[in-house]
Design goal:
The complex is a heterodimer.
Chain A: H1 2-30, H2 33-62, H3 69-74, H4 81-86, H5 92-112, H6 119-143, H7 167-196, H8 201-232, H9 243-268, H10 272-295, H11 308-332, H12 347-377, E1 383-385, H13 387-408, H14 418-444, H15 449-473, H16 484-509, E2 511-518, E3 522-525, E4 528-539, E5 543-554, E6 557-562, E7 565-569, E8 575-578, E9 580-583, E10 587-598, E11 601-610, H17 613-639
Chain B: H1 3-32, E1 33-36, H2 39-43, E2 53-59, E3 65-66, E4 72-78, E5 83-89, E6 101-108, E7 113-120, H3 130-145
The chains are: A alpha+beta, B alpha+beta.
Chain lengths: ~650, ~160
């Protein structure tokens, strides 16, 4: 019964989505207030029914209703309750439903928090979001219905993939999707502006917070995914340049370009058509990402069971969205740009460079991701592109980007005089250079060119992003305080600096060692002693495990005990590595237990990962910066 | 700057950026491009000899051997027509098992043995890399078509 209610609610949501997608757009065109007012009602109605549908699926999981195919495939009686909930979005059908729920949520938020925005604009925005929702609801109902029944019902489920039975992966997809889907709001604003042919600075002011929030969630989602891959996939890498990772990273890069370009549009009324193009691209890349992940056309280590017909649906949807948007763009954009100018040395120039470099970076990642596909279509055989290529290619635009970032933050709009600018930046530049050389030498005892570049860049970003907040904090009575949006920017950039430190140090000084080890044996890795004290059996709620106990010592002194496990889940029977990690702020000590090698020996992977936490901390600080920047906006608007 | 100039500048910079980056990475691209070669082709000697490539297939049952207490491992991979010897030293991914699909990166060593430097794991035990599935499917069909008339062309 409950699954049928869910199914029925989903159909009702589709009908409301059609209303929401069609009537307000007609209303806005005819300037008919009655039709436009449908927008908000339909939006809340759609959210209501999608939420019911989502709740029904969740209940089916909690009740172990194995007469529902999706539940039978992805849950099991002994699965711990929190994972029964997160199992809802563990595979295609459920994550699509979550995508729809989040889209409805974003749309409702737009409908609710847009009191200052003209009715016609908001009606169009909601209308466009409604049309997107129609596409996804059709996708769900026609190709991927989560409520399909299984007759006869299964006695027990096939269990959730053990890799996904982890708190990190329970919240990673929702965050990622909030980010992905959030770019649809910027996209809808862009389409609405192009339909009306009217794009002013207010438009950017209204669009920007939505974009920044979506970007911040995407940042957290990606960071969480990377962290999960690090400890759960068991082998200690934090980024693999895998197609599925790239699929989430490309919208992030585009979104980053978009929030910077929106800043110019808001403050100076410039870069309008460019901003539109970025808004279209960011969302299109989100859709492309979904296509790549779901169609299985690209070989990925993250690929779960996939289905080509679904891929075809998304591809068709992607084509309609991208071609439609670009045709509209070609028609409307040329008339939008205003004639204001700026000097060669101005913040506008630096933001332009930021945009160019980020677009270049996105293009390179896209190229590397699609290359296997293109080469195969040209009959060039089946190839794959390794991480080394991405690492080199990505650094080319990234090094100038991070170096220019520190300068751009302290450059005035319109025109910057060279004198004060040099005076301000001279000290940070020298300090950063000193730190860049001394830091690695002092703590790790060697330097190389890449290391100097990395440490210099990190120090440079950190110092330059702290100048403004520190000055504001130490200001005298009566001086103007830093605005929330400037503070948010500084913090986000600071996060970028922390991230660069982490990446630089861990790639230069990380140690990785695969060894054979017997109980009682001690190995020296990275100046630490790792002793395998014991290997024993332990029992989990739905798995049994072999657990190693490894004592880590430095010069004979106890540092920590870690307990790496090899788990065997009772239903799916496959083995899973749970690494034993001793994390501290400046380094991770990581031990993973491999196979039994016979003769009492085990294979182990021991890793020393200095500063790796900074990678994720940096990303979260970036996201925090985004939220701070936005938090000032509503209060500022009400001040007026 | 006038909007027109701005646009020209933006487009110019973007094109220049992509061009420079593309030029610089083209070489790296060639070095990092790894071909997938079917086992039968490897046995026939049709593989890039001076660089790494990928192979894939099923791990032959009872073929996994290792020396006690050592990380060195030897196994055979089949594409349902030919079998290839593979050696690897290191920690194996969780889903590596006899009779299961596997993808390995590496190059040919002496004595027609493939020296793997990386064995790929998948998230999902039901998932098989598309190129492996295709390679296996082709030979299964061949076998069914010419049942009993199995050739010994593998002993090249």
């Amino acid at each position: 019964m409950i699954p049928e209610i869910g199914q029925f609610a989903l159909i009702l949501a589709l009908i409301l989505a059609v209303c929401q997608g069609v009537l307000p757009l007609i209303g806005a065109h005819r300037n008919d207030a009655a039709l436009m007012s449908v927008a908000r009602t339909a939006t809340f109605g759609q959210l209501f029914f999608v939420a019911i549908s989502f709740a029904c699926l969740t209940i089916a999981f909690l009740n172990d209703d194995f007469s529902v195919l999706y539940v039978a495939n992805h849950s099991q009686l002994a699965l711990p309750t929190p994972y029964k909930v997160s199992a809802v979005w563990s595979a295609h059908e459920g994550s699509l439903l979550m995508w729809i729920l989040i889209l409805a949520g974003w749309t409702a938020a737009v409908a609710k928090f847009s009191s200052g925005v003209p009715d016609r604009l908001i009606a169009r925005v909601i209308g466009v979001l409604g049309l997107l929702s129609v596409g996804f609801l059709l996708f769900a109902l026609l190709t991927s219905n989560p409520f399909d029944r299984l007759v006869p019902a299964a006695m027990d489920g096939a269990d959730l993939n053990p890799l996904l039975q982890d708190p990190g992966l329970a919240i990673h997809p929702p965050l990622l999707y909030i980010g992905y889907v959030g770019f649809s709001v910027a996209f809808a604003f862009a389409i609405a502006a192009m339909i009306s042919g009217d794009l002013d600075q207010n438009w950017a002011r209204w669009t920007r917070p939505w974009t920044v929030v979506a970007w911040a969630f995407l940042t957290m989602g990606i960071a969480l995914g990377s962290w999960w891959a690090y400890y759960e996939l068991g082998w200690g890498g934090w980024w693999f340049w895998d197609p599925v990772e790239n699929a989430s990273f490309m919208p992030w890069l585009m979104g980053t370009a978009l929030i910077h370009s929106l800043a110019v549009t808001e403050r100076r009324g410039l870069f309008k058509s460019w901003t539109l193009l970025l808004a279209i691209s960011a969302f299109s890349l989100s859709l492309l990402g979904t296509f790549l992940v779901r169609s299985g056309i690209i070989v990925s280590v993250h690929a779960f069971a996939t289905d080509p017909t679904r891929g075809f649906f998304i591809l068709a949807f992607l084509a309609i969205v991208v071609i439609g948007a670009l045709v509209l763009y070609a028609w409307r954009a040329p008339g939008l740009d205003s004639a204001a100018g700026f000097s060669a040395l101005s913040r506008e120039t630096f933001l332009l460079l930021n945009n160019v470099l980020l677009v270049v970076a996105t293009t390179l990642v896209l190229l590397g991701t699609l290359a296997p596909l293109i080469v195969e279509m040209l009959n060039g055989g089946k190839i794959s592109i390794g991480p080394p290529w991405f690492e080199i290619a990505f650094l080319i635009p990234m090094i100038p980007l991070v170096l220019l970032l520190g300068v751009g933050m302290h450059t005035a709009w319109r025109q910057q005089n060279v004198g004060p600018w040099m005076k301000l930046l001279k000290f940070p530049a020298i300090a950063a250079l000193l730190i860049g050389v001394i830091l690695p030498l002092l703590f790790y005892g060697r330097v190389s060119l890449m290391l100097i570049v990395g440490c210099f860049a990190a120090a440079w970003i950190v110092i330059t992003s702290l100048i403004q907040p520190v000055r504001s904090w130490r200001r005298k009575e009566g001086a103007t305080a830093i605005t929330r949006s400037a503070l948010g920017m500084s913090i986000a950039h600071l996060g970028m600096g922390l991230f660069v430190i982490g990446v630089t140090i861990v790639s230069a000084f990380g140690v990785e060692s695969d060894r054979a080890m017997r109980v009682g044996e001690t190995l020296d890795v990275a100046g630490l002693e790792f002793e395998l004290r014991d290997v024993r059996q332990v029992q989990g709620p739905n798995f049994t495990a072999i657990e190693g106990v490894v004592e880590i010592r430095r010069d004979g002194e106890f540092v920590a005990n870690v307990r790496p496990q090899k788990r065997q889940y009772l239903v799916q029977k496959n083995w899973m590595t749970e690494a034993g990690i001793h994390p501290t702020w400046n380094k991770d000590l990581f031990v993973a237990l491999g196979d039994q090698l016979g003769d009492g020996a085990w294979s182990v992977r021991i890793q020393y990962k200095p500063m790796i936490r900074f990678i994720w901390i940096g990303a979260f600080v970036m996201a925090l910066g985004g939220f701070i920047a936005i938090s000032g906006r509503r209060s500022r608007r009400t001040d007026k | 700057m006038k909007p027109r100039q701005q646009r020209m500048l933006a487009v110019g910079l973007a094109v220049a950026g992509v061009a420079v980056a593309a030029a610089l990475t083209l070489r790296a691209f060639e070095d990092n491009m790894m071909f997938f070669v079917e086992i039968s082709d490897v046995i026939a000697g049709e593989y890039p000899s001076e660089r790494n490539f990928r192979i894939g297939g099923l791990v032959v049952a009872d073929s996994v051997e290792r020396q006690d207490g050592s990380l060195d491992l030897h196994f055979r991979v089949t594409d349902m027509r030919c079998e290839l010897d593979v050696v690897y030293s290191g920690v194996l991914p969780d889903l590596f098992r006899e009779g299961q699909g596997v993808v390995a990166h590496g190059r040919m060593g002496d004595n027609d043995v493939f020296v793997a430097d990386k064995i790929l794991a998948k998230h999902d035990e039901n998932y098989m890399a598309p190129e492996v599935a295709e390679s296996l499917g082709k030979h299964v069909q061949d076998q069914t078509a010419s049942l009993g008339a199995r050739t010994v062309e593998c002993e090249a």
